[in-house]
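Training component of the fellowship. As part of building independent skills, the fellow (R.M.) carried out the full modelling exercise for a liganded target. The chosen ligand was flavin-adenine dinucleotide. The inputs are recorded below so that the supervisory panel can assess the work.
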Amino acid sequence: MATGINDDKDTGPARGGRRPGPATGAGRPPRGRTSDSGRVRGAGLGQDRGMADVIVVGGGIIGLTAATRLRERGAEVTVWSAQEPAETVSAVAAAAWYPTRTGPGERILAWAAASYDQFRRDAFDRVPGVLVRETRNLERSGATGEPWWAPAARGVRYHPAPAPWTREVRFRAPLVEMGEYLPWLRERLRTAGARVLRRRVDRLEEALVEAPVVVNATGLAAGPLCGDPDVLPARGQIVLVANTGIYTSVRDEGEPGTYVHPRSRDVVLGGTWQEGDWNTTPDPATRDAILERCRALVPELAGAPIVGEKVGLRPVRRGGPRVEAEKWPGGTVVHAYGHGGAGMTLCWGCADEVAALAL
Ligand SMILES: Cc1cc2nc3c(=O)[nH]c(=O)nc-3n(C[C@H](O)[C@H](O)[C@H](O)COP(=O)(O)OP(=O)(O)OC[C@H]3O[C@@H](n4cnc5c(N)ncnc54)[C@H](O)[C@@H]3O)c2cc1C
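Fellow's submitted model of the complex:
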């Protein structure tokens, strides 16, 4: 059966030479030489040897965005992914821009801001799957100050809200249909000269044999792959209903959080946050509870037919995402995992940092 990720090592379009495009480097450069603009320049050796400068292990949103930034800097990049994009946790994500259960912190804020700006540019450029939605956050905390993430959202507005809520915070947020965006990212990478292979590793050292730098973007699998005991799943179940004319995202920050994110054809209803739960089968009682909460929040949902339900295991890491370089016996591993419930929200900012660490 034909798959989107090539199972063999000789990938298609990438090998015939570079084609122009937003992710395209000027040519395969020697690592470490940069132009005044900060871009790596010149012609290097890796392509002649058939080797990559960097192997990105992981083809979810974190791996594909990191590979894009690496390629833009001119690195010879190969992505190894055990799964098709559609099979990843990233494909389950509601993928609304919002730093759920992260930060605060300067680094997280910078990542969130960079991602916000990139997705807004993507939306302007009509990249497949990238929408922008007016968003209503219904708070219960009684907070009166600016939320820590507000600068990244380029401005928020405040409105009174009836009890049990204490105020409504409004902003415009990117919302990404991952079923379209992930394959688009992958194809753009290929067009730009990267290789994207379907390959599972048992150990990251397998990649270090073939490249001096390896990006560990394996999500939940990073725990066993690099011996990190702080990685754990947070189970998320969502229900999809047909979109019968809803355009505003709504989030009730109660416990459990409830959200309604209208996409172009369906509406994502959630959610759950069940730490340590590895069960990927949708639970009917949970589905009914999600529907009830969401219909109470957005009455216009009444009668919208259910078109799907999904479960994903968010790759949580106690202490927050790990984005750092580490020397291993065979080379350098740049870790990029543990983004929990905010992988889409943080991805482009992390990708910038991964590229800077790797090259
Ligand atoms: C229900 C739900 C709703 C969510 N909503 C949002 C939201 O609204 N906004 C938001 O920002 N985030 C949201 N998230 C979180 C988001 O989905 C994650 O943070 C993000 O997908 C993590 O991306 P990742 O690339 O690290 O992991 P993944 O998508 O899991 O990708 C990991 C990659 O590593 C590969 N891999 C793993 N092991 C190996 C191996 N041994 N060898 C080779 N490859 C391997 C996999 O095949 C895959 O390609 C949500 C998640 C869920 C479940």
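The panel noted the following from the submitted structure. The first strand starts at residue 54 and ends at 57. Residues 62 and 347 are 5 Å apart (CA to CA).
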